[in-house]
Amino acid sequence: MEVNMNEVIPFSWLYADEHIPDELYAFVRNNLVDQLDTCLHSLTNPIEYLTALSWHGEEKLSLLMVAALHGHDEIVQVLLAHCQPQYQMELEGKVAISEGNFIDNITALQCACYRAHFTVAKTLIDIGSADVNHDNDKWPYYPLLIQASAENRLDIVRFLIENGYSNVNETQSNDRDRCTALIWAAFKGHASIIEYLIEKGADVNYSCKSDWSLAPTPITCAVLLGNVNAVQLLCNAGANTSAKFTNGATLLMTALKHSHFDVIDFLIKRSIATIDDLELTVCLLVDTNPSMNQLRNASKFFVLAMKYRESNQTPKVRIKPTIAYEYHQECQTFEELDAIKNDHDRMWIEILLIQERIMLPRSDCSLMRSLLARGDVLVSKSS
């Protein structure tokens, strides 16, 4: 018979004593230490049993994984005494870490940690030299610390950091990004994880090593996903608010693009961005030949900026009406904005007026691009 080496083979095909695997499983699962030890001593080939994987329902487990999942530390020590750890420790199975949440290629250490059996986890690392950087199918390339940070498992993060098994900055993903636990905690918005990692010295301005990552720093990750609590925690810890995304976008630009109003509000109220910044960024996100839907979206943010101006008592300084803008002036009231929101040509003029008001005093040459685009429209009309 031809045997596929990747196929999980029932114990009954391999061993004459078909009852032994079931007995061993029962001893391990039920924490019957003496019976397990006696049984293993009686076998001529215990290592074959201890290095095998077997299906139990929907889970594929080694005996060490079974012990880890149930938190049986004495059983773990017996298993390690009967078979050198290197032959058991990095076996990869399939385990449910929560109801219906199965992970393939998971190790005994991960089993223990995901089930919060940290005494067993400590034994596996201290005695068995379990690899804390081993990944799995759900989290390829990610060490256990980063997995736990992404899964919002503060208990696992604490265990690894406080026992010196992982380092908040040196433990990084094994892909080209080389991201840290704080990157993933910020991306997921896990406030308690972020607070803990910062407390333990995580670098809030660490940047991923690959240009393929749109959001390379913790704060850009938090802004991208609209996690305002994460943004606040990182800012309070000294994160660089001038950080940009790899496409050149600012924090405010990205928050606007994704309509993360809580983040926009935080950036304005913390003076990380000004109302002028808000208005100008809205303008810059509008195409030179915008759709009506894009202009209506811009109008929504102009209303928001006007609310901030009203709250802060900072009115606009309007430029004098000129023929270039058909003698229109910037809207000063909500009613005026509402009246133009469905007028394509007038909304485009509003955008140009805002840009000129803000950019001209800054001697920003990019203003010319918008003015030239407006000139093309006027030429087209006259022809």
Mind explaining what this structure looks like?
This protein has three domains: 1-130, Alpha Horseshoe (Serine Threonine Protein Phosphatase 5, Tetratricopeptide repeat), CATH 1.25.40; 139-239, Ankyrin repeat-containing domain (Serine Threonine Protein Phosphatase 5, Tetratricopeptide repeat, Alpha Horseshoe), CATH 1.25.40; 274-383, no CATH class. Helix content is 52%, strand content 5%. The protein has helices at 11-14, 19-29, 33-42, 46-50, 63-70, 73-82, 108-114, 118-126, 144-150, 154-162, 181-188, 191-199, 218-224, 228-236, 251-257, 261-269, 275-284, 292-312, 334-340, 344-359, 367-382; strands at residues 54-56, 59-61, 93-98, 101-106. Strands 1-2 form a two-stranded antiparallel ribbon. Strands 3-4 form a two-stranded antiparallel sheet. The protein starts with 10 loop residues before the first helix and ends with a helix. The protein is mainly alpha-helical and 383 residues long. Pfam families: Ank, Ank_2.
Describe the structure in brief:
Keywords: ANK repeat, Repeat. The chain is mainly alpha-helical and 383 residues long.
CATH topology label of the largest domain: Serine Threonine Protein Phosphatase 5, Tetratricopeptide repeat
Look at the structure and give the mean pLDDT.
Answer: 92
> How do the helices and strands follow one another from N- to C-terminus?
HHHHEEHHEEHHHHHHHHHHHHHHH
Beta-strand level of the residues, as a percent range?
under 5%
The largest sheet, given as strand count, sense and whether it forms a barrel, is: 2 strands, antiparallel
Q: What is the number of helical segments per DSSP (H or I, 4+ residues)? A: 21
The number of strands is 4
Proportion in helices: 40-55%
Radius of gyration from the CA trace?
A: 30 Å
CATH H level, superfamily name of the largest domain: Ankyrin repeat-containing domain
